[in-house]
Design goal:
This is Lysophospholipase L1. InterPro entries: Ester_Hydrolysis_Enzymes (IPR051532), SGNH_hydro (IPR013830), SGNH_hydro_sf (IPR036514). It holds the Pfam family Lipase_GDSL_2. The structure is a single chain. About 20% of the residues lie in helices and about 25% in strands. It contains 9 helices and 22 strands. Helix 3 crosses helix 9 and helix 4 runs parallel beside helix 6.
Length: about 450
């Protein structure tokens, strides 16, 4: 295969498919799995490919039977909540699709949509879930290319290397794709393989598999270079600057109380977690992250706050590990404190609320953890937080704990745990405000 540096020295002639007019748009069928389809709130690498071709002045038409993303969390495949919906969203990618067990047969798709170019990024599900060997996948590709050519003889095929090379057999599969393209490539109908993007698992995926905006951009750039090699598109121009994390923030409202602030918000499509940030403006404090993160479905919280001080709060959206650095909710400002006292009597303040402890936790049966603690005087409720871990050797960070349902009347609960071990943490609550923590307020147990 010709190196990309050498390609930049070659003259480019954009070839039209036989029988097509030069003015006809280039019909491109994008085929794949979740990496290509994307999920709620994503750009997808299809967007960046569309943007490149459009900016380069290439007449094109992305074709396929689908338009939507995979919806989180329900799982439907007709979600149109793209980060940027203003592009040609037609495609033939399906969440969970496998080359060896396709939802849509590639040969049938080629017959139905008569593409000039087929771009395919698929195979990871076959390797990881069905344990198909790289060699068997290459043989399947040989048959698939033959079916594409039978349906659309002049169609070029771009085989996209799987960028998640930390999965077993992916490097070997990518090597098979490179060898296969060299074998099947021809002057009348090209078969080319993309270069392997420099993919960073931490920044280019939001869950260890599915790409963030920076990951989508890297895939698109590799595809653009392969289209240049095939002679159907000009080389990529300047790389756009992208930000990872959700592009839309929730609204946030705040209501002052005595020693507390009640916050509420709404779920945003594609946001899996909300970070709550706060600062004490009266004391000149800087923004800091609240010690709890709030998963999708949690839309309210009551936070303790010093009376008479002006507090500011904001939410920062995240999708998995991709946290928005440049997007937050509008800031809300509030001053907690008691309402004007009735003229007949001053408000009655109870004794300070103490911490819960000692907390006990055990796993009586498979996937279940039972936890309890002594009651705290003057508490009106109890709040349970949990953190799944690999072992109990290390105490997790505060941000790892998640609310386990609504507040309870007593510090006793049985929760489901699909982890090797589970940390539990109890807060005493009075009038909706959580009390302090102590070392004995948390405990960990191995899960059966």
């Amino acid at each position: 295969m010709v190196g990309l540096a050498a390609l930049l020295l070659l003259p480019l002639t954009l070839a039209a498919a036989p029988g097509a007019r030069a003015s006809d748009p280039l019909r491109i069928l994008v085929y794949g799995d979740s990496i290509t389809q994307g999920s709620t709130g994503d750009y997808t690498w299809r967007y960046f490919l569309d943007r490149h071709l459009r900016d380069a002045g290439v007449p094109f038409d992305l074709v396929g039977p689908r338009r939507g993303l995979h919806h989180l969390p329900e799982g439907a495949d007709d979600d149109l909540d793209y980060a940027e919906p203003g592009f040609d969203t037609d495609h033939a990618a399906v969440w969970g699709q496998k080359l060896t067990a396709p939802v849509a047969d590639l040969g049938d798709l080629a017959a139905d949509h008569t593409p000039d170019v087929v771009i395919a990024l698929i195979g990871l599900n076959d390797l990881v879930w069905n344990h198909v060997t790289p060699e068997a996948l290459a043989e399947r590709w040989r048959a698939e290319v033959a079916e594409v050519r039978a349906a659309s003889p002049a169609a070029d095929v771009v085989l996209v290397q799987v960028p998640q090379t930390w999965y077993a057999d992916v490097p070997a599969y990518n090597a098979e794709l490179v060898a296969l393209s060299a074998e099947l490539d021809g002057p009348a109908a090209r078969v080319v393989t993309t270069a392997l993007p420099d993919f960073d698992r931490r920044t280019d995926t939001w869950d260890g598999t599915h790409p963030t905006a920076s990951g989508d951009l890297k895939i698109a750039e590799a595809v653009e270079a392969a289209l240049y090699l095939a002679g159907v598109a000009p080389p990529a121009g300047m790389t756009p600057v992208v930000q990872n994390g959700p592009r839309t923030a929730s609204s946030l409202t705040a209501e002052a109380g005595v020693g507390q602030v009640s916050l509420s918000w709404h779920d945003v499509p594609g946001v899996t977690t909300e970070w709550l940030e706060r600062r004490d403006v009266s004391s000149g404090g800087a923004w800091d992250r609240y010690p709890l993160d709030f998963p999708a479905g949690t839309t309210s919280w009551t936070a303790a706050a010093v009376d008479g001080h002006r507090w500011e709060f904001r939410l920062r959206p995240a999708k998995g590990t991709a946290v928005s650095a440049d997007v937050t909710s509008p800031v809300v400002s509030v001053v907690p404190g008691p309402p004007p006292a009735p003229s007949t009597a001053a408000p009655v303040v109870g004794p300070p609320l103490g911490p819960v402890g000692p907390v006990r936790a055990r796993s009586p049966r498979r996937d279940r953890v039972r936890t309890s603690a002594p009651a705290v005087p003057t508490a009106t409720g109890y709040r349970l937080l949990v953190a799944p871990v690999r072992s109990c050797r290390r105490h997790p960070r505060a941000s790892a704990f998640r609310p386990a349902g609504h507040d309870r009347r007593s510090p006793s609960a049985t929760v489901r745990a699909r982890a090797r071990a589970l940390w539990v943490r109890w807060y005493a609550v009075r009038d909706g405000v959580a009390g302090p923590l102590a070392a004995a307020s948390s405990a960990c147990t191995r899960v059966r």
